[in-house]
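sorry for the late reply, my laptop died twice this morning and i had to redo everyting from scratch. anyway the thing you sent over, i finally got around to it. pasting the sequence first so we're on the same page, its 286 residues, then the predicted structure underneath. double check i copied it right bc i was rushing
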Amino acid sequence: MGAEGICQIVDYRSNRPYKVEVIEGGKPGTGIILEHWHPEVEIVCKISGTAEHYVDGKRFFSHPGDITVVNSQSLHKVYPGQEEEGKRQAIVLLLRRELVDAMIPDYQDKYFCVTESLDREKIISLMTETAELYSRPEQINSLLISSRIYEIMYLLARDGLAPKEEAMPINKQKNQERLRGIMNYVSAHYTERIRQKDVAQRFYFTKEYFARFFRENTGLTFQEYVRRFRVKMAYEELVNTDKTIMEIALGHGFGDARGFINTFKQYYGTTPKQYRQYSKKQDNLT
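ok and here's the structure:
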């Protein structure tokens, strides 16, 4: 997985044009997915628990039995609710853009919407079968998986495929493009000092309009987004390296260790040191 806020690079198995992920409840905070985008179409069926989503600036909550579709290049993020560790939360199906284009040749002008008429029960059944087949090593299962994927896409297209300009007006599309540019900038410079007024000027906003634009389209202030991005990136080094807390803090744009510790505790519910100890203990149990 690539850094949030920029184009996510999806790691596929072999040469298959799809990927299936089963999401389970885990350590606190690990299910948070900040703004990112990818060329793939992403289909999510919620199995248990709840989650808060932002997709193309729209905020909604998913519950068991819900289907979420993230269109190609759509900006999206997820904040999971209370999770039971080890319990299946959701099944995620990622489809390469070239596969979607082969199934729907004019997809560049279309947009998948989740409508009331969508056959959620059938789609969840197909997604569950697909996840089970995907977990098996036999190559022949790829034929069965493909048949399930085509049926899922048929149901989505039948009940929820709309002209893109109707589902997402041009001005909204332009806003999302500008957001992608801003987030790419944060990803490239988050280890440095980032001032909101400088970023606003860089992207041709007034300071006041930039603040309003960013919050309306992400649900966060710009400063909150930068803090979350920094702590999420620092998290990867915390659990995967033996660097000191100070080294991690300074390497990810925090002015000192205290600022990192306070921010980490805000989002993960514990200090970085305690979280690292917990993570190592859990790894030793597996």
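Residues 6 and 184 are 5 Å apart (CA to CA).
thats about all i looked at so far, will dig more tmrw
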